[in-house]
Amino acid sequence: MQAKYPSDSICIMTDLVLPGETNPLNNLFGGELLARMDRAASIAARRHSRRIVVTASVNHVAFNRAIPLGSVVTVEAKISRTFKTSMEVFIDVWIEDRESGIRHKANEAIYTFVAVDETGRPVEVPIIEPQTELEKQRYDAALRRKQLSLVLAGKMNPHEATELKALFL
Ligand SMILES: CC(C)(COP(=O)(O)OP(=O)(O)OC[C@H]1O[C@@H](n2cnc3c(N)ncnc32)[C@H](O)[C@@H]1OP(=O)(O)O)[C@@H](O)C(=O)NCCC(=O)NCCS
User: Fold this and answer.
1) Does some domain include residue 64?
2) Does the record carry Hydrolase as a key word (predicted)?
3) Does residue 169 form part of some domain?
4) Is 47 within the bounds of a domain?
């Protein structure tokens, strides 16, 4: 399978925060943001693999900054690393200042998707070649995150998590 670049499958979704999508403080409801991130990440994973994809895990979500009603929110999802059948997707969330148009980073998240066939069985995906410095940093740290996610899900013995162990030795 031919290697692809993260820019080949990037998904950028821009939308408003409407009244039905907020919490009692009039900020974007966390579950709504999770859904927007899931949608953008699944599109990036689908573009990369050209397969049906399913969310295998949500590895990290940081709600660093509240997103007020009426904000223009941009969710940017990019494949950070691929393994055999799984893809790590990094999601950056930006809000746009109404007057200046300047974008501020509000949140980020990391999701894992798996490409599957019509029966739901995992299938191989093309490898990814990071290009920018940030893409390379995220690529390098992805194996560690995968091992942590598998250990926490009870799918990997901590003794086999070599990348994680290397952090503490
Ligand atoms: C995700 C799913 C396809 C994995 O199936 P499985 O039988 O565990 O298959 P495998 O053990 O072969 O794992 C497939 C890949 O997923 C990865 N994976 C599985 N669970 C993971 C987790 N918690 N974190 C990170 N990666 C995970 C495996 O490491 C493997 O990756 P690799 O092939 O790139 O090395 C299966 O669990 C599933 O269909 N889950 C439901 C998905 C769904 O409905 N999502 C919507 C949310 S409700």
Assistant:
1) yes
2) yes
3) no
4) yes
Q: Model pTM greater than 0.90?
A: yes
In this prediction, residue 99 has a pLDDT band, given cuts at 50, 70 and 90, of confident
SS3 state at 60: strand
CATH of the domain at 23: 3.10.129.10
- Which atom of ligand 1 is nearest the CA belonging to 55? 45
Note down the domain range covering 91.
Answer: 6-130
**pLDDT confidence of 151, banded at 50, 70, 90?**
very high
Q: Residue of the nearest CA to atom 47 in ligand 1?
A: 55
Name 44's bridge partners: none
- DSSP state letters, 100-136: T--EEEEEEEEEEEEEE-TTS-B-----B---SHHHH
Centre of ligand 1 to C-alpha 114, Å, is 6
Q: How many Å lie between the centroid of ligand 1 and the Cα of residue 36?
A: 21
How many structural domains is the chain composed of? 1
